[in-house]
């Protein structure tokens, strides 16, 4: 009996850990690849003044480029758990895809959402009176959060019939048939040759871009061919505008799949990934252009 109870306890602990990974709204938005692409595409668009300040602020980093620090805000979970907890809500905002209207008291209480985080970190980066290490971290946060707000499921959460929301697709379970190996945090749950049990949020964080089966460098070159160019301050918009735009893309692009009868689909495969990838890639290019414009304005 004691052995059975111990096994049950270990099983419950494992299930709790797996559930936490599956439902965490900040789970590796755009994955390392997606954030790397945003930084890589943005770097050549920087003005000489911004390039110089970025180089100064990132001096001493293992990879002192925008791409090199783009995933830092996610990696905090392994290097600084306290800061990761403090900033967990800064990666997303849960707008209702049926309205996509942003009301700060409701959607961003106490400034804890990606919209307010981008504004706050930009102010810190612009303040030359701040210590260099504080401005450096603000730059790293900005690179990451501007990527996050362009991942549609970091800008919207569909409300469920039983109340509450689905945490940006984290609670929308799917069975995904793909040749792409699962990320390390969920690899144990995937059986070789069988559909991968995952959720819609992870599909967009990870599988959508990974399924292009390209090296990061080749992917960046391909996206440049699709057009990545500087944008004017007048065309930049605000983080709130970007979030609303991403939220509207959830329904406009059919991220939540339905069958011919209008029923929600929970079995996905390569056809879904291939059909939605152009939209994901367009969001990556837009995020890069806006990131560069923000840094060019802030680091004059």
Automatic annotation (TrEMBL):
SUPFAM superfamilies in the record: Phospholipase C/P1 nuclease (SSF48537)
Phylogenetic lineage: Bacteria, Pseudomonadati, Pseudomonadota, Betaproteobacteria, Burkholderiales
Stored InterPro entries: PLipase_C/P1_nuclease_dom_sf (IPR008947), S1/P1nuclease (IPR003154)
Signal peptide: 1-29
Protein name from the UniProt record: S1/P1 nuclease
Domain of life: Bacteria
Entry keywords, A to Z: Disulfide bond, Endonuclease, Glycoprotein, Hydrolase, Metal-binding, Nuclease, Signal
């Amino acid at each position: 009996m004691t052995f059975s109870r111990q096994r049950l306890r270990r099983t419950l602990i494992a299930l709790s850990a797996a559930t936490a990974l599956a439902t965490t709204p900040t789970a590796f938005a755009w994955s390392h690849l997606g954030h790397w692409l945003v930084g890589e595409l943005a770097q050549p668009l920087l003005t000489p003044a911004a390039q110089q300040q970025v180089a100064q602020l990132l001096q001493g980093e293992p990879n002192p480029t925008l791409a090199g620090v783009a995933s830092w805000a996610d990696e905090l979970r392994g290097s600084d758990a306290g800061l990761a907890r403090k900033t967990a809500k800064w990666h997303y905002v849960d707008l209702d895809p049926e309205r996509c209207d942003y009301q700060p008291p409701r959607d961003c209480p106490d400034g804890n959402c990606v919209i307010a985080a981008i504004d706050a970190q930009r102010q810190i980066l612009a303040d030359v009176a701040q210590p260099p290490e504080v401005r450096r971290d603000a730059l790293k946060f900005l690179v990451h959060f501007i990527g996050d707000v362009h991942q549609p499921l970091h800008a919207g959460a569909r409300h469920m019939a039983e109340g509450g929301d689905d945490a940006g697709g984290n609670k929308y379970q799917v069975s995904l048939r793909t040749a792409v190996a699962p990320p390390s945090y969920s690899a144990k749950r995937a059986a070789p040759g069988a559909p991968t049990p995952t959720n819609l949020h992870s599909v967009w964080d990870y599988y959508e871009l990974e399924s292009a089966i390209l090296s990061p460098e080749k992917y960046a070159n391909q996206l440049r061919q699709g057009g990545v160019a500087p944008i004017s301050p007048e065309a930049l918009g605000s983080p709130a505008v970007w979030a609303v735009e991403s939220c509207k893309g959830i329904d406009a692009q059919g991220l939540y799949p339905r069958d011919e009868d209008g029923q929600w689909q929970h079995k996905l495969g390569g056809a879904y990934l291939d059909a939605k990838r152009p939209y994901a890639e367009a969001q990556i290019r837009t995020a890069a252009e806006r990131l560069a414009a923000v840094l060019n304005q802030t680091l004059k």
